[in-house]
């Protein structure tokens, strides 16, 4: 706990896969892959890594000219490298911007993060590939990114720093008899108290039992009375329906007889 920090000072794939940096076992295969990887930074990259910003989550339509227009407001830019696919030439959505002065770098790092460019909220951080010891990129299971849906989130970076661990003391629980033996030696007096309390509980339960029986009996009688009333209402309803049907049939017969009499006249 003494050396804990929200931002990783050295890249450890196992810690990066933990929300508080305290995991002792990897929880996904990508962490295993990162732990076994032997990554060497690209030696073909030039420029000062300590004056370079990493800019991600760019709109794929964003160009170098647009990045220069936005980031030049923080200071003089030495070089912009928008990473593109080698085959298609399309942007991969991230870039590296090298400043001439550290003051401009720090200002852009502070103010440009979560800036909206071409309808995209960007992410800005220092370059880590050449500055953070032990760095493993995302494609090898490392990095500090990831999506919640994938279950492979990485922590310890600016976007998702470590959460402070909950420091719970390692204490024995006397409730389960894990404490010293002298604490578990119950007195005979205490035992008598418990037995007396148990007898009182039994007596009170015996007293309550007839009351419950009466209440249950009362409930049964109520239910029986309700069912009898319901059956009586049902019979009355059927009688009314039968009388109505008989009345309708009588009317039909009378009207038919009247029509027949009219025909014979």
TrEMBL record:
Keywords: Nucleus, RNA-binding. The lineage of its organism: Eukaryota, Metazoa, Chordata, Craniata, Vertebrata. It comes from Cyanistes caeruleus. It is found in: Nucleus. One of its GO terms (cellular component) is precatalytic spliceosome. Residues 146-162, 180-265 have a biased composition (Basic and acidic residues). SMART domains: RRM (SM00360). The keyword Transit peptide does not apply. It comes from the Eukaryota. PANTHER family: U1 SMALL NUCLEAR RIBONUCLEOPROTEIN 70 KD, U11_U12 SMALL NUCLEAR RIBONUCLEOPROTEIN 35 KDA PROTEIN. GO terms for biological process: mRNA splicing, via spliceosome. InterPro entries: Nucleotide-bd_a/b_plait_sf (IPR012677), RBD_domain_sf (IPR035979), RRM_dom (IPR000504), snRNP35_RRM (IPR034146), U1_U11-U12_snRNP_70-35kDa (IPR051183). The keyword RNA-binding applies. Residues 146-265 are annotated as: Disordered. This is U11/U12 small nuclear ribonucleoprotein 35 kDa protein. Residues 51-129 form the RRM domain. GO terms for molecular function: mRNA binding; snRNA binding.
């Amino acid at each position: 706990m003494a050396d804990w920090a929200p931002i990783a000072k050295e890249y450890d794939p196992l810690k990066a896969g933990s929300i508080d940096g305290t995991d002792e076992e990897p929880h996904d295969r990508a962490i295993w892959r990162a732990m076994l990887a032997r990554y060497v930074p690209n030696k073909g990259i030039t420029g000062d890594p300590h004056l370079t910003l990493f800019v991600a989550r760019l709109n794929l339509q964003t160009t170098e000219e647009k990045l220069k227009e936005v980031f030049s407001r923080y200071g003089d830019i030495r070089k912009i490298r928008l990473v593109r696919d080698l085959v298609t030439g399309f942007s991969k959505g991230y870039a590296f911007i090298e400043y001439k002065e550290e003051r401009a770098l720090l200002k852009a790092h502070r103010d440009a993060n979560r800036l909206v460019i071409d309808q995209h909220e960007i992410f800005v951080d220092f370059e880590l590939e050449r500055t953070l010891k032990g760095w493993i990129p995302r494609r090898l299971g490392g990095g500090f990114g990831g999506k919640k849906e994938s279950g492979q989130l990485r922590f310890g970076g600016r976007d998702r720093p470590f959460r402070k661990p909950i420091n719970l003391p390692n204490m024995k629980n006397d409730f389960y008899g894990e404490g010293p033996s002298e604490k578990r030696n119950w007195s005979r007096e205490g035992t008598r108290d418990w037995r007396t309390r148990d007898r009182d509980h039994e007596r009170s339960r015996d007293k309550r039992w007839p009351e419950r029986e009466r209440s249950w009996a009362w409930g049964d009688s109520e239910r029986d009375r309700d069912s009898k009333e319901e059956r009586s209402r049902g019979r009355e309803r059927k009688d009314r329906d039968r009388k109505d049907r008989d009345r309708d049939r009588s009317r039909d017969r009378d009207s038919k007889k009247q029509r027949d009499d009219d025909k014979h006249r």
